[in-house]
Amino acid sequence: MEILENKSISCVKGFRAAAVSAGLKKGGKLDMGLVVSDVPAVAAGVFTTNIVKAAPVQIDMKHIKNKTTRAFVINSGNANACTGQQGLDDAESETAKVASALGFSSDEVLAYSTGVIGVPLPMDKINAGIDNCLDSLRDGGDDLAKAIMTTDTKEKSIYLRMQLSGKDVDICGIAKGSGMIHPNMGTMLSFVATDCNITKEMLTRIQKDVTAGTFNMVTVDGDTSTNDSATIIANGEAGNTLIDRPDTQDYECFSEAVYYVTEFLSKAIAADGEGATRFIEVYVYGADDINQARTLARSVAGSSLVKAAMHGADANWGRVLCAMGYSGAQFDQNKVDVSFESEAGSIDVFLKGVPLKFDEEQASEILTKDSIRISVNLNSGEAQAKSWGCDLTEEYVKINGDYRS
Amino acid sequence: MEILENKSISCVKGFRAAAVSAGLKKGGKLDMGLVVSDVPAVAAGVFTTNIVKAAPVQIDMKHIKNKTTRAFVINSGNANACTGQQGLDDAESETAKVASALGFSSDEVLAYSTGVIGVPLPMDKINAGIDNCLDSLRDGGDDLAKAIMTTDTKEKSIYLRMQLSGKDVDICGIAKGSGMIHPNMGTMLSFVATDCNITKEMLTRIQKDVTAGTFNMVTVDGDTSTNDSATIIANGEAGNTLIDRPDTQDYECFSEAVYYVTEFLSKAIAADGEGATRFIEVYVYGADDINQARTLARSVAGSSLVKAAMHGADANWGRVLCAMGYSGAQFDQNKVDVSFESEAGSIDVFLKGVPLKFDEEQASEILTKDSIRISVNLNSGEAQAKSWGCDLTEEYVKINGDYRS
After folding, report:
1. Is the interface score ipTM higher than 0.95?
2. In chain A, what is the straight-line distance between the N-terminal and C-terminal CA atoms, in Å?
């Protein structure tokens, strides 16, 4: 498995992509994109569990059930959420327009939107944007990761290559996130395209598995935005032997690669949280089971008080314990160890339920680095989990105090 | 029922109180207090559901089971949480010292701490503080609400008088809060003292009922700090006919008065959230049942994105819908109405699931007031609930980035 510099979905065999400016964002920024597979492909998707689902999510949850999938049409700048029947009609109309132009059926096309809630899509701009995307499909798409950004400050993309049954198999993933005060409240979109030859059933299984350990450790399941979507599409153009069973080395190998891609994107989303100056990884180990480990890790990474303490480079482990305590997971506080780590070193602050005297200066030196790990050992079992977040800053409040204008 | 200007627990018949500086806070600030009933009283308490319970909470949960209660000893500046066996020993020693000096049994005394987590109580200062409290019990106590403050900027107290069976019955409540980014993460302490003649059973019942509708709508049950405690004590000195049944007018009347006191304190806690510039009431009505209404109201009031929008006076009702959607409660978004209100007027922004065009200037004028109400009508049933919070500000982040120093 190697990581390539190439970061465009259009470099994966049999995929084309486009990114254009449709005038949804101010200042001529890129705000629409299209991904097309030249051959019928299979796709798997995970969508928000929020009761209030954006119109494109409602449409996609039907379309993803189709045996084959051919295209994604994506816009930023408008979420098409809380837009009633009009919103559903508009999302359907987008998929129909793309399908009609390319000779697909409507349910082979998925639509994605992110941006402001409650404003109907300006369909004249959307339709013109789709036309522009179709025109530039041949050579475009390198900027797709940019076109899906909202308050993101950096593009998030990764490109992997591996060999399966003697064939090169490529995977390209792009994502957008941000809005990270709770790791679960920013709209997260992720698109993974691969030329792997795999059944829809196996792809769905892998997508579900990796999402639980990666995206859901940034974007908490059951506690999500109206538009969150993570989709993977595989068109088989690599020509590897079909992956149709889970108990094979190819399945294992491909699954690991997808995990690598989604973990990379999850961390990139966390690191680029709104206003963030610091990336935080919470590592819970020695847990009785993975659900306990995940619940605790997410609770700590999502605690506003922990995030604010990390912003202040304050080794306030009490807030770590407090966030674990209200997480809903059971644990024995008298067995817990807590330490803080970064490239500047590691410091133990809590051991078997007892606070340790530690050098505040050393702790502060560790915590002023850009990337921090909070490690929690439950000293009970063998399970572990990681969750990712960022610090809470004054800048976050500024960004979110007046997002719509 | 009348509200008196007098705001000290020591004005309630049969109670004495003291507030002193024990050197736990910097600069000679008041940081310890004592409340004593001259006669055996009954008490009821509600404590944090956080798995990580501070030492005094663990002690109090045992002592509150005693038939009679005589005293509360309280300190700010140190939470005595995550302090292991030493912390438990220290909290027990506090109650024993007070009991011994006043001729009570240890389990008639409750201890409360709030402040930094994980630092053992400086027992020399605590013991000297208790001695000072005992010395000033006769004439002190007016400043007790000040002595329990941490990052609170205002004292929170209220004094009510009512007549029951021809006797004056007084209720005095004091509280501290703050730390309000989630309405559930700041340590909340509340003390209510009354001379009402009531059984422990009835007092416990009232305490439980009012907490669910008031303190728990600020400090969410199951999602609380290590030290949260709300205690009520009644010594019977008013001489009213004993309240020993719920189906009486006296029970109803007293219960309403306690509700009034705790709702007042809850709102005062919300309005004085760390860094807050704006008080927010979320009012959910037309709900099928009270649990649905409470869950939705709390989710909206606790949403960091809603709080940040309110700080920016941004009528971003999409975030209201989003917070409702991930609350865990079921509802039909196509029936929902949302409006914003303040002393500057009221504006409807969402009607039966459809966004309304509204005057942004008028909305902004409404939302720049100090006290805002977000009203949500589910148009389904008859149940309703209110939750209280505050806006999220840059100042909050500053306060919490370096709380320990």
Report:
1. no
2. 45
